[in-house]
Amino acid sequence: MDTESKPNWLRRLYTWTIHWAATPQAVPALVVIAFIESSFFPIPPDVLLLALCFAHPKKWAHFAFWCTVGSVAGGVFGWWIGHALWEAVAPWFFAHVPGFTEVTFQKVEGFYQKNAFFFILTAAFTPIPYKVFTVASGVFAVPIPTLVSASILGRAGRFFLVAAVIRLGGPALRPHIEKYLEVAVTLLFLLGVGGFMAIKWLK
């Protein structure tokens, strides 16, 4: 069988996400992915956000808003996991969710002792793993208002920026994104790995 006729899983994922733009479930799907990514899901919501913005560029702010809502709500859910369930679920997180290690948590605890708001904001906006910071905020009793306010600023800044780039770039960007999708997502993954390393080495 010709393997070229079968798109790899990444392109299948892109094809799957783009179809939501033509269904009534487009925004709910975006919200759900953004929600679960904030605590344990490995795929960033930016993929679906890009697809929806390409399909309906005039609704870029609408999609960015709901992506932010889902992600911040997921951050609060991550806080609850850390606050109420961590002793029970920690072994699973350490074994199965990238970035969750005891060393990482020790680093994050030190960050929170210095300035919890700043470090949550940084993780929310950059490739530094936001999910680690949301769960850790519950483990280390960061006040929810601090988590929510920093998350709103960081997540909104990130998602509105991504959506605005697609809106301004228009259809001219789409073939390049689709052609180099694997490269783009690989770079995103590597940035995430860099974020994990930043947590490990920052003092």
Write structural notes for this entry.
By secondary structure, this protein is an all-alpha fold. The chain has one domain (25-201). It has nine helices and no strands. The radius of gyration is 17 Å and the shape is globular. Residues 1-6 have low confidence and may be disordered.
Task: Please describe the topology of this protein.
Layout: H1 9-19, H2 26-37, H3 46-55, H4 60-96, H5 102-125, H6 130-139, H7 144-169, H8 174-179, H9 181-201
Largest sheet: number of strands, sense, barrel closure: none
Mean pLDDT: 82
Number of helical runs? Answer: 9
Q: What pattern of helices and strands is seen along the backbone? A: HHHHHHHHH
C-alpha Rg (nearest Å): 17 Å
Q: How many structural domains can be distinguished in the coordinates? A: 1
Indicate the structural class: mainly alpha
Strand content: under 5%
Helical residues, percent: over 70%
Shape descriptor: globular
Task: Kindly state the number of beta strands.
Answer: 0
First and last CA, distance: 52 Å
Unreliable stretches: 1-6
